[in-house]
Amino acid sequence: MPPKANLNAPVKKKAGGTTGSSGAGANGTPGSPAPASSSVKPAQISASKSFIVRPSVSSKNLKAIMNVYMNLSEIRSIGLSAGEIVHLGKKGERGVVGVLTPTAGPIAVDTIEISNQLRQLGGFLLGDRVVVSKYSGRPSFAPSVTIGTDQEIEEKKIQKALESVGIVCAGLQFESDGVKLAIRQIGGDDLPDMASLSLDDDATTATNSKHATTATPYFFQASKTKLTITPGEMDIDNRGDLPDIVRYSSIGGLKKQIAMLRSKIELPLHQPSLFKRFNMSPDRGFLLHGPPGTGKTMLLRAVANETNAHVLTINGPSIVSKYLGETESALRDIFEEARSYQPAIIFIDEIDALVPKRDSDESGEAESRVVSTLLTLMDGMGASGRVVVIGATNRPNSIDPALRRPGRFGQEIEIGIPDVEGRLEILSIQLERIPHTLKEEEINNLAAKTHGYVGADIYAVCRDAVMRAVQRGLDKSMNEKDMFVDVQDFENALVDIRPSAMREIFLETPKVHWTDVGGQEPIKQTLKEMVEWPLSHPDTFLRLGVNAPRGILLYGPPGCSKTLIAKALATEAGLNFLAVKGPELFNKFVGESERAVREIFSKARAASPSIIFFDEIDALSTARGSAEAGGDRVLTSLLNEMDGIEALNGVIILAATNLPDTIDSALMRPGRLDRLVYVGPPDLDARRKILQIQFRRMSIGSDVDIEDLSVRTEGCSGAEVVSLCQEAGLLAMNESLDIDCVSKRHFEEALSKLKRAITKEMLEYFDEFSKSGR
Q1: Which ranges are annotated Low complexity under compositional bias (predicted)?
Q2: Which CATH superfamily is domain 248-414 in?
């Protein structure tokens, strides 16, 4: 027997095999046609004793549903016999059982043919590599079977159908006499009572079993098995370890992309002749790009399941070999297999790692050869062939540009971060499978507040919420059927699960509310109108043709709560908050500072609605010509991002400064920082509220007069009022570590040491700036 192929270690010999039309299999069922070429070399994807999954044409024959067709010589070579019950599954995963059946005619080497029903039960795609071995157990007779039907059917007909199938498993679905049947449950497959379980228990026994299956196999015999029929109910009662078959309906938030893929991929795969009439060849290459977790791989699996195509997957650099020419040989083998098993899809994940730009620092001679080979293979696909190549990447601009043209990867489809409607779809799909008590309004609120969450993040939130509900049930010794996920579980999960798209940059989740900001009521109201109105009343803005403010500049003396107000605004509005300190963006390498600016705005767009807060923005935006060239380049990048070609939808720029006159005037024109808000020293009422907020956290003596302190702190900034309280507390501790409270004498001493940083000249400076109209 020729050596098996391994994608990670390409072989040098080609596997032989005879081809031709398959003859009749067991039960008189013909096998599927073999590949046209007798020299097909299976692409090197998995290790020894693995076989390529291909479809059997006997799917409508009930007696052949559980058959695993294989070449007789192949059966003997692996030490098995025809008629044996075998286990087949991917390495490290659960599998299914079937009856090993030789085909009368030839079948391609290293290939098995199974029915669509068995393939669905195991969650296999055409082209998957599975290991076939003798099943170590022996199925027993099913004590009871619950079977769902899509219409009325006689019990005897169902019994006859189940006896024809022979081996039955929960989750197996098939058709008999035009009626769809689904085995919903088999007696003994119930989960144990959750009250008897613990999250600390070692539950690895089943999964570590050599022949762990997705569902326990049983023999069916009408005289020994109690049959329960549920017309109109087809859902599997307890899915257990059954694989999830990904369909288009399983994916939320990608309606536009699904429609595009269906129109662009299904026609070339199944009806390429339509293009001949117009003397045009269809697109063969598609590039899916977008952040991690948005559903690129899941979308491919849906395409593969819906189109019934042979799928070959290349995971980026996994086929790269240290030996000269072997990487290119592995690529050629994969394309050869795809041509042999049409319709076929070649999926290249992380394609940027396989074919980087040939003129970049990351690319060497080996990478250039791989790029050239892929270009040649894609150009060599015939116009009438039914092979599609799909690449996926998070960095489309890192791919060699020669691949991004018509005829190769001519169609680029962005799989972006879902909007609120997309998040609602994803949440709804997940919640269909979870016992919960959430109301429709609560689900809508969850979708609205998960800004920047991709599909994988939302799944993680659901999983975390379920774990909290299960733990609560275990703590209370609840029965499994009494456990439900509630809205508080989701609220708590959102605290721990943050958007993955935002993890590459500094993301702060403020916990500051308007009540934490003493005074400044007019400023609070102004900011609410500027930020919250566009989010809560977008229809009004659209109807009146009014654009929401793009940017807001908070200016005023130091310590007057500008940063605190920005945090409270983000918290109260429920927005993602990106805090950027001006000097932190500068980098000694040319171009790195500008790249950092672009990345911040890109992440903010992805997680919109969001706020980018530039503290000390004067360090970034000094008037051009008055600073070094590096500062000018950063300012130019900032201007382009704020009001450039790419729209800044759903992103609000909030900036703070103590030196507003040093900021470049181009930054403060309409469309950029078009609202200037003066945050001055707190007045008497504001100082009183600041003291009240501080006193709530302190133990204050009865002799302390808050009104007197409010008056005597005239001219102080908010930070200085807070500092006064802290200083008084420290003085009390210096007096005695066992002291009960902070007294009036401590405040008197602290007042004597207080130095006011806000001068008359400083206030005149801000007043003059305000009058200048800038």
Answers
A1: 29-39
A2: P-loop containing nucleotide triphosphate hydrolases (3.40.50.300)
